Amino acid sequence: MISFLTIFILGIGLIGLQISISTTDYLTTQQRHDMLRQARNINSSIIENSEVTSELLQTIEKLGSFSSYNIWLIDTGGRIVAASTMQDEFVGEIMSDSLMEDLLNGRNSIQIMEIDEEERPMLSVAVPWTSEGIIHGGIILHSPIAGIKSTVRNIREIVLWSILGGLLIVSILVSYLSWTISKPLRKVEEAANEIALGNYSKRVNHHLPDEVGALVQSFNRMAAKLNEIEKQRDSTEQRRKDFIANISHELRTPLTAMKGFLEVLQEGFVKDPKLQQKYYNIMFRETEYLNQLVDDLMDLIKLEQKEISMHLKKVDIAEIIKVVSLQLNPTFIKRNNKLQSFTLEPLPYIIGDSLRIEQILTNIIHNANKFTSNGTITVKTKVQNDCLCVIVTDTGIGIPSHDLDRIWDRFFKVDRDRTKNGRGTGLGLAIVKELVKLHKGNIHVESKLGQGSTFTISFPIYNYDTLYNS
């Protein structure tokens, strides 16, 4: 505001000063020209008079009554011999030598005179008094310059009042402009301080379509992005903590069991060879579990970091289902389950890594068998929307609805008590989901608690030549 007002005052002040100077020069020049013209006219009126007579004095007095200037008539000696006012006390006074020198040489003279009896300076114009080419003296017209100064003073007063009125208007406008800018900026500052303290939900309300509005919108977008990043960071941090807790638990359980059995065997408390062999078998199974846990972890990390190399080729899903069924058949017999397979013939080929697809189907079918007892696991295939779908349905214990979205998380187990039905690392479904994504496919689950689950895996059907030529 101070900057605007300073610029306004300086600008208007300079304009007013320039106007007053220009006006003074203009009025002075115009008055000089007018006085010179009237002086020449007076000379023309008395051109027939070469001496001061009563008739000449009356003529000068009469001319003075029609003029707005005082008229003096001087002789060649520089003495004032006549005046437009008979009572003029200057009659008989001697003019300066420099003035007389100009007049006697036929030159006009214009100057500012300081007359002792006058309290104000006078603008004087002198022209030679001539007749028939002979100079008889001079004619002087003079007028106070106070009139010019009064006019200029009036102009300055007008400029001053204009400045004061302009200051009032500019102050109101600048105050409003400053308020409209500073208020939302203060809000932005307050919001920035809130965000600095961790309140990423803070926003600024300002909807005017101006530069400040654009700034506020950018600020709100930044705050929303920070809020999203903070939520992702919190989620990542929570997943990291859960991962550490889960992996610690999964490692501690087998290691504790192995340590206990080793201590018993080392101290020689078990003498029976059959019991010793039983303990060795248990430790071997725990070792296999740890090895499987490490392998699954490494696979999952590689999948999430896109470090898994894929060996793409034509894959026959029907053949892989047969191989997986044959491999898992002993586990089905152990849990008294029945595996039914209904595959279309012939099935279209898909493009993928046969070993990874076998890993997907093995995990899903093995999972269905693990949580089903004295039931049936059904594997079906169908073609739908340019995708080859593999549907695995079991009649097992099912999954609670509130846990359906969490079964894909690392180490998540719907019910810890379910581990009695078969031990697992809790990474199988997380690996399956990443492998399916790697094949540009999709996996979906439907389940009802106590009635079983259905997993549907969809693989896109590609043209083999098109895929490898692209």
TrEMBL record:
Q: Which GO terms describe its cellular component?
A: plasma membrane
Gene3D superfamilies for the chain: 1.10.287.130, 6.10.340.10, Histidine kinase-like ATPase, C-terminal domain (3.30.565.10)
Cross-referenced InterPro entries: HAMP_dom (IPR003660), HATPase_C_sf (IPR036890), HATPase_dom (IPR003594), His_kinase_dom (IPR005467), HisK_dim/P_dom (IPR003661), HisK_dim/P_sf (IPR036097), Sig_transdc_His_kin-like_C (IPR004358)
**SUPFAM superfamilies in the record:** ATPase domain of HSP90 chaperone/DNA topoisomerase II/histidine kinase, HAMP domain-like, Homodimeric domain of signal transducing histidine kinase
Q: Where in this chain does the entry annotate a coiled-coil region?
A: 219-246
Q: Where are the transmembrane segments?
A: 6-27, 158-179
What Enzyme Commission number does this protein have?
2.7.13.3
Q: Which residues form the HAMP domain?
A: 179-231
UniProt cross-references to PROSITE patterns, sorted A to Z: HAMP (PS50885), HIS_KIN (PS50109)
Q: Which UniProt keywords apply?
A: ATP-binding, Cell membrane, Coiled coil, Kinase, Membrane, Nucleotide-binding, Phosphoprotein, Transferase, Transmembrane, Transmembrane helix, Two-component regulatory system
| SMART domains linked | HAMP, HATPase_c, HisKA
Q: Does the keyword Plastid apply?
A: no
Q: Which reaction does it catalyse?
A: ATP + protein L-histidine = ADP + protein N-phospho-L-histidine
Q: Where in the cell is it found?
A: Cell membrane
What would be an example GO MF term here? phosphorelay sensor kinase activity
Top-rank EC class of the record's enzyme: transferase
Q: Which residues form the Histidine kinase domain?
A: 246-463
Q: Which PANTHER family match?
A: OSMOSENSING HISTIDINE PROTEIN KINASE SLN1, TWO-COMPONENT HISTIDINE PROTEIN KINASE
Instruction: Write the protein's name.
Output: histidine kinase
